[in-house]
Automatic annotation (TrEMBL):
Domain DyP dimeric alpha+beta barrel: 15-157
Domain of life: Bacteria
Cofactor(s) needed by this chain: heme b
Sorted UniProt keywords: Iron, Metal-binding, Oxidoreductase, Peroxidase
Stated name of the protein: DyP dimeric alpha+beta barrel domain-containing protein
Signal sequence bounds: none
Record has Heme as a keyword: no
SUPFAM superfamilies, sorted: Dimeric alpha+beta barrel (SSF54909)
UniProt source species: Ruegeria marisflavi
Keyword Membrane: no
Amino acid sequence: MSNINPEDDFDAEKVQGNILRGYKHNNVRHLMLEVTNRDAARRFLAASADGTDETVPRITRSANWAPPAPEVCFNIGITFEGLRALGLPASQLATFPTEYAEGMAQRAVKLGDFGDSAPENWPSPFDQPDRIHIVASIYSNDVEKFDPVEKQVAKAFTVLGVRDGRNLPEGKVFFGYRDGISQPRFKHIFDPEMVNVDEPKDPLGTALLGYPTHFEGVEFAIPEPKEVFHDCSFNAFRVLQQKTDAFETYLSEAAAKLEKHPKQFELLPEGAEASICGGMSRHDALREVVAAQMCGRWRNGTPYELSPNSDERGDLSLTNYDYTLSSRCPAGSHMRRANPRGGPIVQRVSNYSRRIVRRGMSYGPDPETGEHGLLGNFIGANYGAQFEAVMCDWINFGLQDPRITGTNDPLLGANVPETSAFELTLRDGGQIRLSGFPRFVITRGGAYTMLPSLPAIRYLAQLSG
């Protein structure tokens, strides 16, 4: 455990942007890079951290902008193989976490990435994970800004692949849900969009190495040298295909069955369809109820916990609520699995402890294949205690609640029709079980990266040999 720099000594200028506070740009380009010229890569990193060379994009810091963000923002994540390619000594490489060292492809089973989501089915360049050394990200509202920055980057690295993302209207994803609503809010960080959020503030150690965490007396280990890798984060970059046709088809199938179910009015009271999406048929309203319970929110973002019979938000908060044993929001819903808040779970010590910063934009549809989905970044200070614990223990095993243990997340989980199951909650405390749904999200690639602090970038740039 490290006692270096307590929170009171936090310097946001050392931290890359988009970690503690999002940019809100509408477009992104992710570049998968290989270090093929070590000296050129080091010179690029030095210039990018320094920010005085106009031929190299400047690393955007957490502290050097106020809303609105700069016209173009630039950040990097480095894989374990990238550290090796830059020349970090083996003695120091050995101090990094096992999850990071092995990389996302080797951790696939832990993450539920098998079958269609298995690494052997990932397209280029993710089919050669050892060659992906850096994931560089360019953010802007103007897509014409991307090509000039990419050309600057390409002078120092080999560009293995490019992934472009964009925000969809109303902040939604292709499944139709409004996204990115509930995020950690950090001590010492003022975010104007989080002013009215009434959730506990997260310690900096939730996302940054070297600071207190939710676990009393516990700080996540910092690689050597500690003074260099203080203020760094770890990121799971994921390319997630969303099977929207399959999802919408299943909603229709489920609604058709529910229309014949004797307890359908305990699920949605008679006449309540008039308060859903401005008024709908009974069938379409039941489709939306199933979608809302599976997610934990109506598609417009209204929490199901606060409004189980209508998606009309009114004065309801999007974030200020909690779960109880009698909650109408199902224990198996996506939102409740990924963030059980202060609600009852088996591992009570884990309430709020697995919070993850989520940054993402939609991609596609591809003009040839129609593939579309989400380019997601899931940021924290420890893969094992945060991202992998959420994905394995909560998303794909349901270990936080005996009522859902053995089932997978209905939206994100590794489901197959033969075993999938989800319990809809009813007003009278009963349930209706849904089953037979396929996997709706397919992993198409990704990488585990470290988001280095500015001191760490400078350190890597000064390596020799």
